[in-house]
Design goal:
Blueprint (H helix, E strand, L loop, with lengths): L2 H53 L19
Amino acid sequence: MSDNETLQQQLIELESKLAFQEDTVNSLNNELHEHQKRIEKLQHQVMLLADKLRQLPDDNGNGPVEQEPPPPHY
């Protein structure tokens, strides 16, 4: 094989590797975007659950702490 053919073959191999890497980067970017959307959705759900938990009565059957009257002074 001549030097020209060797260089041509190496160039083809490098172009193939570059194309594969670009495809991999695009796939990873798409996957990362999907994961970010899921994380944002889960964060929103956690916030809603936290709000609902704050509104639940405590174990004594009382309402949320913000709505309880102050304790009597003895």
